[in-house]
Design brief:
This protein is of the alpha/beta class and about 200 residues long. It has 8 helices and 6 strands. The protein has a single domain, classed as Pyruvate-ferredoxin oxidoreductase, PFOR, domain III (Pyruvate-ferredoxin Oxidoreductase, domain 3). A 6-stranded mixed sheet has the order 2-3-1-4-5-6, with helices on both faces. This is 2-oxoacid:ferredoxin oxidoreductase, beta subunit.
Length: about 200
Amino acid sequence: MKKSMNILLVGVGGQGTILASKILSHVALAQGWDVKMSEIHGMAQRGGSVVTQVRLGEKVYSPIIEPGEADIIVGFEKLEAYRWTHMLRPGGTMIVNDQKIEPLPVLIGAAAYPEGIIEAIGERVSRLIVVPALDLAAKLGNPKAANVVLMGVLASVMDISRETWDAALAARVPARFLELNQRAFAAGLDHRERKEA
């Protein structure tokens, strides 16, 4: 790994972005890395934006990622992902859940949800991984596990052992949901591996 890595997680309140960032931070700490994390909640409880910046490496002094400096962006909702593409560095990786969650202006009829968002993201970034995370989680019996499906995809682009991720899940996920989340993580990892095959 280079001296530091910047990972941005963006989504909508209720999608589990904060839990995902805590799993990621746990993984990084287990690697012996320095970790800084910053969370921004925009009316998160009402379906507003949630953005988490995670910086990890040998020594990290600030949790803030500057525009054009994110190595990886994980978009839990496709419109939110599109809004944050300016943060990705050239050659960086964008992982996008193809889920659509209509923001308040759309719900009240003041705006329309844009068409062709995934294609528009593809025009802005060079490395795009699109994941049907909600569908994969629903097949496991709980759509709320989509966040951990996305962590499985993230794990596939980071050089960190599966055991380290498994230990982070066990440490951060309540025991009654652990088995489901382990299967969700495996589904994300498997999805990515099948795409690469």
